[in-house]
């Protein structure tokens, strides 16, 4: 099975937030690209699903943002294929469909060597907006994959796109005081995890970078504040799952340049 589906007028998951006046960053459709299939009876097969909310206007900004999202999707699919196979099919660097073809080849090669190995290989990507302002589009991309092993892997990433150029910017661009920012995030983390200020995080099982607390790789600006998201394995064991919490803007005054965002 393969194909591309455009779902016009989607409101998606309902978590899309819009602030300010109507703008082109809120005009989009859900575009679904699906390739391959999994035979659940035989527990074998290979599939790729990419479901992204994409901008629909014809502007250069929309073209740039949609292009970046496609590039990210292709890179993530290719991360499960070997470099030699990708080099033999250069189109895999430019097309979701071709990236699937290489992914499928790697699966078939694996099955030739390990015919009795159970399980379908799957990569599923799902993207949606978090908030669209007159200046920025904040975007969430969820990633799920299983290519054998004890359990599937999943993670979430957040992205900020400039409303004037479409270019992606790092979230730290909006942080005015990184030292105060780190301190505030650690305090909120301890509160979320019900830990005292004096608790040694490593001694109770958390993973720290060079024995120092750290801001998660992924956080995003919402209407109410900043949502911080630690993916599984990032700061705690896989069984712990993702850890997330929101710090309201009222606590971020002087630390985050809210006026540059909303």
Protein described:
The chain has 262 residues and is of the alpha+beta class. It has 2 domains: 2-169, 2-Layer Sandwich (Heat Shock Protein 90); 172-260, Heat-shock cognate protein, ATPase (Actin, Chain A, domain 4, Alpha-Beta Complex), CATH 3.90.640.20. It has 4 helices and 11 strands, in the order ββββαααββββαβββ. The strands form 2 sheets. Strands 1, 2, 3, 4, 5, 6, 7 and 8 form an 8-stranded mixed beta sheet that branches. The N and C termini lie far apart (42 Å).
Q: Would you kindly provide a brief summary of this structure?
A:
With 262 residues, the chain is α+β, with helices and mostly antiparallel strands. It has helices spanning 60-78, 83-88, 96-113, 178-192, and strands at residues 2-7, 17-18, 28-39, 44-55, 121-132, 136-146, 153-162, 168-169, 218-221, 225-230, 243-248.
